[in-house]
TrEMBL record:
This is ABC transporter. Keywords: ATP-binding, Nucleotide-binding. GO terms for molecular function: ATP binding; ATP hydrolysis activity; transmembrane transporter activity. It comes from Puia dinghuensis. Gene3D superfamilies: P-loop containing nucleotide triphosphate hydrolases. Residues 4-236 form the ABC transporter domain.
């Protein structure tokens, strides 16, 4: 069964400061994601990968087209759904992990990671224990677990970001460059954790420029070229 079916999606941006110049980020996108499938999304910088992911998460509202999402409680069009429905889906079953951690001030790393569970689970210490286990697996030094991620290095912030994205075992995981600034050992841990989610039934859309990550993780690849899905990769990325 498909968890996502995208039909003829397009996204244009109106740049008011440039006299209403229009940028077309995505055109005529048709794609599906099956339940439990891991899709690697590739393409040159600026080809529209993050824009497509943000349309699925509804950070960007698609200009035209349809995104049919088979939620736990029925099919919903993520383009037309009202904001309350989107907020509920984000809380319960969809997770987006951006390229960079948006740091929450004065919240320790362990709580940043545990936050998706702290909202729903009664046992807060159990949620924090799970966060610590993930941070340990990802090799974040224990001295940093209670520190604020604002001062962390790029790779340290990325570990916090990935741990936060996977802790609640979402049904749909949208993950942008999860292994970009990680060493090979940590890359393997991230790949293993995402594979574990797949076993649990999670569907994953993963943007990556990293051939090792793509070849070890993705069941299938989609390639974007200037905002369109191309059937074959004809360019060097
Ligand atoms: N909020 C926005 N406002 C205006 N233009 C945007 C916005 N977001 C993306 N774009 C434009 O859409 C196009 C696609 O950008 P996008 O960020 O999706 O590329 P990408 O494939 O993720 O690139 P990268 O690999 O560098 O992350 C670019 O031309 C970009 O400038
Ligand atoms: Mg991007």
């Amino acid at each position: 069964m498909n968890i996502i079916e995208v039909h003829q999606l397009s996204k244009t941006f109106d740049l008011h400061i440039l006299h209403d110049k229009q940028i077309t980020a995505l055109q005529h996108i048709d794609m599906t994601i099956r339940e439990g499938e891991i899709i690697g999304l590739t393409g040159r910088s600026g080809s529209g990968k993050s824009s497509l992911m943000k349309c699925l998460y509804r950070t960007y509202l698609a200009t035209t087209g349809e995104i049919r999402y088979a939620s736990a409680s029925g099919v919903i069009d993520l383009v037309k759904a009202d904001d309350h429905a989107i907020i509920a889906l984000r809380r319960q079953e969809m997770r987006y992990c951006s390229q960079f951690l948006s740091v929450i001030p004065r919240v320790p790393a362990v709580d940043v990671v545990a936050e998706p569970l702290l909202r729903t689970e009664k046992n807060k210490e159990e949620a924090r224990a799970r966060a610590r286990t993930l941070l340990e697996m990802l090799g974040l030094p224990s001295g940093l677990w209670d520190a604020y991620p604002v001062t962390f290095s790029g790779g340290e912030q990325q570990r916090v970001n990935v741990a936060r994205a996977i802790i609640a075992k979402p049904r749909l995981l949208l993950i942008d460059e999860p292994t970009a600034s990680l060493d090979v050992r940590t890359k393997d841990v991230v790949i293993g954790l995402i594979r574990d989610l797949k076993q649990h039934g999670t569907s994953v859309l993963c943007i990556s420029h990293d051939e090792y990550t793509l070849s070890t993780l993705a069941d299938r690849r989609l390639h974007l070229q200037a905002g369109r899905i191309t059937p074959t990769v004809t360019e060097i990325i």
